Amino acid sequence: MAVSEPGPATTASPGDALVVLEHVNKWFGELHVLQDIDLSIKQGEVVVVIGPSGSGKSTLCRAINRLETIDNGTITLDGKKLPEEGKELANLRAEVGMVFQSFNLFAHKTILENVTLGPIKVRKQPKEQAEKRANELLERVGVGHQAAKYPAQLSGGQQQRVAIARALAMDPKVMLFDEPTSALDPEMIKEVLDVMVDLARGGMTMVVVTHEMGFARTAADRVLFMADGAIVEENTPEEFFENPRTERAQDFLSKIL
Ligand code: ADP
Ligand code: MG
């Protein structure tokens, strides 16, 4: 299952900052859900975000592709500030691939249509071109034989791999994964993680919210530990798992490991 791509669709070179958050704050009413987040993600970097439920991990991901607005601070993607709204926002958002816990495939469209919809509608690709690419991507994530089926006819692991192929079909500059394996039966987790590891090795810039420590150790360049809306610790996976510095992280790891 080689997912390695010719290279992400960006002008940035490896090592350049691709996603930059500066002083990002967000409140839900009284709740300060993102507290002065500063984060710079380099081209080709794989960042794993872990932390207790409710710490703001999903909100952080959603802010990066503007599914959530932020109250202040700036987020830039490949040097461009994320606009508030309009066509420009739609264009920039198309450059951020997102894979959710619930696969969010269109139930009444075939697997192939799920993958070609964005490229045809948003990228204005001719249907044949979009289908050719979709078939290649489905092949790469190991569901090439399922193209004519509907989502409900696939296992959860297969659906999630289709969701990854669908995101990749837009040639995103960065891929965000929000607990992509949390809703899967245990025997299907590996097949999804394998695709993600391959993507990481192929140079894709990735932000992955997950508690899959095996994935973090294998693929992450950096682990961020979030608690109460803040990044309280960041380190290499080796250092983070062996020597968590903060009590919060030690406490969290003692519960999940
Ligand atoms: P995590 O993904 O780390 O579990 P979330 O980012 O989903 O955390 O949520 C962080 C906090 O913000 C939680 O307390 C959650 O209840 C709250 N929250 C999330 N979305 C909303 C919303 N749309 N309105 C109000 N509160 C929200
Ligand atoms: Mg979440």
Automatic annotation (TrEMBL):
SMART domains found in the cross-reference section: AAA
PROSITE patterns with a match to the protein in the record: ABC_TRANSPORTER_1 (PS00211), ABC_TRANSPORTER_2 (PS50893)
Primary location class: membrane
Membrane topology of this protein: Peripheral membrane protein
Gene3D superfamilies: P-loop containing nucleotide triphosphate hydrolases
Family annotation (InterPro entries): AAA+_ATPase, ABC_ATPase_HisP-typ, ABC_transporter-like_ATP-bd, ABC_transporter-like_CS, MetN_ABC_transporter-like, P-loop_NTPase
Cellular compartments annotated: Cell membrane
Presence of the UniProt keyword Nucleotide-binding in the record: yes
Keywords: Amino-acid transport, ATP-binding, Cell membrane, Membrane, Nucleotide-binding, Transport
Family designation: Belongs to the ABC transporter superfamily.
The protein's name: Amino acid ABC transporter ATP-binding protein
Origin species: Nocardioides bigeumensis
